[in-house]
Amino acid sequence: MKEGGIIKNNLIMLDYDGVIVDSKNAFTATFLAACRTCGYTGIKTPEQVVRLFDGNFFEALIHLGLSSEKIDEILGDAFEREAKKHIAKVRPFPGIQASLNAMSRQNVLTVITSNVSRLVRQVFEKEGIACVDEVVGGEAERSKVKKIQKTMSRYRDLPAYYVGDTKGDMIEGKKAGAVTVAVTWGWHTADNLAEASPDHTVNTLSALENLLS
To answer: What is the pLDDT of residues 72-93, one digit of tens each?
Structure first.
């Protein structure tokens, strides 16, 4: 496939939190504060927040008894207000920007995340990350399966990869029909990721580049 006169080899879809940015502490603090602001106290610790990503984040919240309206309330203005307090602490993993630049030369790069796309773009702008073609956040669609499939439908002639750092990422990437790539520097351990049987597991950015560049 040619894009802008350049031949593109693959469609690479990446999660944001835990793959591109080291944001576990900032995200969990933001989410817990937003829950408290909205009167929900059923999730109390960062560890509980991380476990929500063993599957689909939004489905896990519904499983806990939260209504769609309450989820929207927590992840709406309350979440964005709290996120602004922590956004300066959200930094890309060392070396990730160079890796993204390298992978973008002959691949289509998109970010598919449960986070808010506007917040993702703010961090990208702050950090000078300009090689990502599209950001699809949780406000657009709650199901990563649907978001991945919709993105794949626009690039039908390209092999499609989904790169994630949680068991839920791997489960949803497989359901969507993408080749799944687990990175071990994010939120879930290698053992936790292995439970979802990813197609590939990488421990370093150089290994990710070698696989996808």
So the answer is: 999 999 999 999 898 888 999 9
Nearest-5° Cα angle at 101, 95 to 106: 140
| Secondary structure letter of residue 76 according to DSSP | I
Tokens, residue 172: 């949803």
Distance CA 125, CA 187 (A): 23
Q: Where are the domains of the chain?
A: 2-22+91-212, 24-88
Per residue in 94-117, pLDDT tens?
Answer: 999 999 999 999 999 999 999 999
Parallel/antiparallel/unpaired status of strands 134-136 and 107-112: parallel
Q: In 87-201, where does DSSP find H-type helix?
A: 96-104, 117-127, 144-153, 167-176, 190-194
Q: Are 31 and 88 in contact (CB under 8 A)?
A: no
Q: How far apart are CA 178 and CA 13, in angstroms?
A: 9
3-state DSSP assignment of residue 81: helix
Q: Torsions phi, psi of 154, nearest 5? A: -85, -10
Contact 180, 173 (CB under 8 A): yes
Tell me which CATH homologous superfamily contains domain 2-22+91-212. Answer: HAD superfamily/HAD-like (3.40.50.1000)
pTM: 0.92
Distance between CA atoms of 115 and 44, rounded to whole angstroms?
A: 20
